[in-house]
Amino acid sequence: MVGVLVLRPEEAARRTAQRLRERGHDPVVAPLLTIRATGEARPDGPFDGVVVTSPNAFEALGPADLAAVVALPLLAVGERTGEAARRAGFTAVTAAAGDRIALAALAPSVFVAGARLLLVLGRDHKPDTPSLLEEAGFMVVPWIAYAAEAEGALPEAAVAALGRGAVSVALHYSRRSAGLALSLAERAGCGEVFRALRHLCLSEDVAAPLRAAGARVVEAAAVPHEDALLALLPADGDS
């Protein structure tokens, strides 16, 4: 059995924790970001499609907002976001390869030229995402629908697990949360122990802050999908 620190927002972390238990591992859920709706009104339609850059968007959208767009074709940045879209009720879902460059490259095969697209973003989004889609030939209407708010301290469960050596692996899903984990672990007095873990990351972009901080073992999934990330763990809970 491997102790695994799951560093992602609460709802998603609990789904991952269940998958880890089914594989014989011992997860410690440690959310560092809380997803909240910004309260910004949804832009007026009509729209020809929806583009979403994170599964976190679906945690913040209310029933009325979902009902207004759920029948539209949706382009997701990656399969993880695509899966969240399907759980939210979207049926015409296409997933890109996991980053905004791939998203913009795939858009012309999903939407007609000149389509008016609702781009659902978080407050801390990559600033060039709208322009990449515009350069691909679309009318883009950005909507800052949610914010991922940082916690001020490493969760007590994580500090305790690190202190007693109960975890040997950390799972990282975003560059921002990886950097936040490093700083909060340092603040909690367990920075060295945290950096000594085996850090498994959804992509090389996510891994970058950990490598820069001198974490000893940092690995990135072959593709930015949770199945590929979990495949880096020992099978059936073996150490």
From TrEMBL:
<dbReference type="GO" id="GO:0033014">
    <property type="term" value="P:tetrapyrrole biosynthetic process"/>
</dbReference>
<keyword id="KW-0456">Lyase</keyword>
<protein>
    <submittedName>
        <fullName>Uroporphyrinogen-III synthase</fullName>
        <ecNumber>4.2.1.75</ecNumber>
    </submittedName>
</protein>
<dbReference type="Pfam" id="PF02602">
    <property type="entry name" value="HEM4"/>
</dbReference>
<dbReference type="InterPro" id="IPR036108">
    <property type="entry name" value="4pyrrol_syn_uPrphyn_synt_sf"/>
</dbReference>
<dbReference type="GO" id="GO:0004852">
    <property type="term" value="F:uroporphyrinogen-III synthase activity"/>
</dbReference>
<dbReference type="InterPro" id="IPR003754">
    <property type="entry name" value="4pyrrol_synth_uPrphyn_synth"/>
</dbReference>
<feature type="domain" description="Tetrapyrrole biosynthesis uroporphyrinogen III synthase">
    <location>
        <begin position="15"/>
        <end position="230"/>
    </location>
</feature>
